[in-house]
Design goal:
This protein is mainly α. It is built from 2 helices and no strands. The mean pLDDT is 85.
Length: 49
Amino acid sequence: MDNQDPELSREEQICLNQTRKALDNIIYSPRPETIRAIAEYAKKTQPTK
């Protein structure tokens, strides 16, 4: 994952790599209310057969 962009300065490259590492560590766990809202929306938008 060490994609060195020639347009970025050394400092920018370090910041980009730190951001990538941070984003790789984020775990997304939605609240139950969010999952219910998504499920309800999906039911409403299902095409009728």
